[in-house]
Amino acid sequence: MLIRYGVSTGFASLGSVKNCMLASSAVFRRQQFLIRSIGGYSDHIEPRRMQDIRSMSGTTFEADAENVMREITPVLDPSKHKGQAGKIAVIGGCREYTGAPYFAAISALKIGADLSHVFCTKDAAPVIKSYSPELIVHPILEESYNISGLEDEERRRISSKILAEVDKWMERFDCLVVGPGLGRDPYLLECVSEIMKHARQSNVPIVIDGDGLFLVTNSIDLVSGYPLAVLTPNVNEYKRLVQKVLNCEVNDRDAPELLQSLAKQIGGVTILQKGKSDLISDGEIAKSVNIYGSPRRCGGQGDILSGSVAVFLSWARAKGKATTSQMNPSVLGCIAGSALLRKAASLAFKDKKRSTLTTDIIECLGRSLEDICPAC
Q1: What is the reported pTM?
Q2: Three-state DSSP class for 191?
Q3: What confidence tens digit (pLDDT) does each residue in 350-363 have?
Q4: Which of 34, 124, 166, 251 could form a disulfide with 93 if both were Cys (CB 3.0 to 4.6 A apart)?
Q5: How many CB atoms lie within 10 A of CB 77?
Q6: For 117, what's the count of Cα atoms within 13 Å in the CB-facing half-sphere?
Q7: What is the rounded CA–CA span in Å between residue 285 and residue 59?
Q8: pLDDT tens, residue by residue, 263-284
Q9: Which burial class, exposed, middle or buried, applies to 282 when counting CB atoms under 10 A from its CB (0-12, 13-18, 19+)?
Q10: Which of 194, 263, 192 is nearest to 227 (CA)?
Q11: Which residues in 188-323 belong to E strands, given as ranges?
């Protein structure tokens, strides 16, 4: 079996997924037997030793998240100009949802991106603009209720106009974040599908969250075979992805293997499975981020994560071969984004306790990163 980056990657086909999981479990059981045989195991073995033993079986390894952040975060250099620290665009925001795209876009700025754009519907734009003058807001997306009664030709003309407007900016972006506050309007999702296709053609990385995952789960070809795509599903979104792609149920016991199989089957996309511990895989390796965050589960933390991953992914790609790590830049971006959110959430919770809100966590992003990666 091929071993790469210390993690088993021997998935020959979708039909072999179950066998690989069973094989991994069998290896773990054999290791337990050997340890018992030499007197080094008891039924009351402490949790940390159990975790170490399971890591030896090739299931997953905990990422050294702080070192990843140090390696890919650029120092502030007075010789650089505006835009070189990252230009991020969020595709999302509709009548019902204006907070999510703001959280993702402002988080990118708070971490250190130079410019942050939001492409949203015309109804959402004034609201999002009122949240912060720091964001560049483009009120160009349309929902079905605005074009009801129009002929098909006119609807296509409007769709082409939207796409052309986004295309004018596409080459400037280091990463797109698709999904925060997007909603599920059919016409809007149709337009966003075309935007994602054009991003692929321009080799722009895409971080997909929220309703963007609803879109992708129902149209998996949008990301299939695109290694610059990052999916960030929560528990329910992940279940739907597994059922759609692997045609099976989620098995927590073999979570890393299942995640690795899913990423590989979709064609090398990177998946950050959110949970008590965040699991990350690009189909070749599996990493976990176990840093303790906060017991407060206020809405919007996933939007912070998507904006954070977009920035770190951009920085990892910009570093390129300058990093000592051989990991995929998308995986590095996920590790760093996950760790920073957890540290910021922990810091915010120490102060606010039950009243902790997403805005409190956002205000802790800069301090949390500075503690690990001083700006100068």
Answers
A1: 0.84
A2: helix
A3: 999 999 999 999 99
A4: 124
A5: 9
A6: 19
A7: 10
A8: 999 999 999 999 999 999 999 9
A9: buried
A10: 263
A11: 206-208, 229-231, 270-273, 278-281, 286-289
